[in-house]
Structure formats: structure tokens, C-alpha cells
Amino acid sequence: MRFYLFAISLSLVALVSCNNGNGCYDSVDTLMVTSMSINDSLQIKSLVIRGVDRNDVGDTIVNDRDSTLTKRYTLPLSLSADSTGFVLEVNGIKDTLYIRHSMMMLFISENCGFAPNYVISGLRHSAGIDSVMITDKKVNPKSIEKKTNDQNISIYFSSAAH
């Protein structure tokens, strides 16, 4: 009889401790929101984005063949280095963009754990990129909630090269 009481008690404890109400409902994905354009009249017909020196199958971050004047994407930043490099292939022409940043892990909640928070401190790019404007240097899990015309950086490509 004691064995049955012990088994029932253990089962009740196991059921109570396996509460599904302890899930993580906050975003811990930290992505930089980026817009890209050439000028008001030229369309970006194809866009492929990879990390620098990342040419293996599966390393492509973006592969978009839809034509549009402006493209907007969320891109990851490095967790292990203070800069992140991207190869941007726009309409068949490759350019390179390096983003310098600092990163700090911030506690989100007990159930979600930690998420990286970045601060963009500088940029460097190849000649095919006309300019890059930092509009919000803070990149955190809330960045992906930005509205349509709001982003962390805007990349403008040279119309002569593209």
C-alpha cells in the first residue's frame, strides 16, 4: 500500500512540475534591419547576401529574385567577433560591407534566457556601394518589430555600377 501511495505522490509531483505555462514568449532573435536601394528609377532585380568567406551550400542568407526599387531584410550580426562582413550581390555585381559593432548579452527572462544586444560603431564598404546610413545604431530583439520605413541601416548602391 505504501508503494502505491508513493507512486501516486510521485506522479502528482511530476505532473505539477511539467507545467507548460513556463514557455518563452519574448523574442531572443537579434537581427539588424537593413534596406537596400539603387536610386529612384533602377530596380534591384536580384539580390544574394552571404557572409564574407561563406561560400558553401547553405551559407546564403538571402537569395531574392523579385524586382523592386527597395529591398528590406533582417541580417544577423556576429556573436563571436566585433565586426560582421557581408557580400552583397546586386543584379550580378558583388560588393562587400563590413559592420563594426559591440555586443552585450542581456537577460530577457528566466524562461527565455539571454539575447545579444549590439551597438553599431562604424562601417566600411567597397566602391560599388555609394553610401550607408546608420539610422538606428542599437540592434536588439525588438529591432525586427520596426515599421516598414524604419531600419537600422540603409544601403545605397552606385547607379553607375548596377
Characterise this structure:
- There is one protein chain.
- By secondary structure, the protein is mainly β.
- The chain has one domain (24-157).
- Helices cover 10% and strands 46% of the residues.
- The protein has 1 helix and 10 strands; from the N terminus they run H-E-E-E-E-E-E-E-E-E-E.
- It has one helix spanning 2-17; strands spanning 31-37, 47-51, 60-64, 70-76, 83-90, 93-109, 113-125, 129-134, 138-139, 153-157.
- The strands form 2 sheets. It has a 6-stranded antiparallel sheet, with no helix packed on it. A 4-stranded mixed sheet has the order 4-1-10-8, with no helix packed on it.
- A hairpin with an 8-residue loop joins strand 2 and strand 3 (60-64).
- The protein is globular, with a radius of gyration of 22 Å.
- The model is unreliable at 12-19 (pLDDT under 50).
Q: Identify low-pLDDT runs.
A: 12-19
Number of domains: 1
The oligomeric state is single chain
| DSSP strand count | 10
- Structural class given helices, strands, pairing? mainly beta
Mean pLDDT: 85
Helix content: under 10%
Radius of gyration: 22 Å
Count of helical segments? Answer: 1
Morphology: globular
What summary fits the major beta sheet? Answer: 6 strands, antiparallel
**Biggest sheet strand line-up:** 3-2-5-6-7-9
CA distance, first residue to last residue: 82 Å
Give the SSE order as H and E letters.
HEEEEEEEEEE
Strand content: over 45%
Properties at a glance:
162 residues; mainly beta; 4-stranded mixed sheet; 10 strands; 10% helix; globular
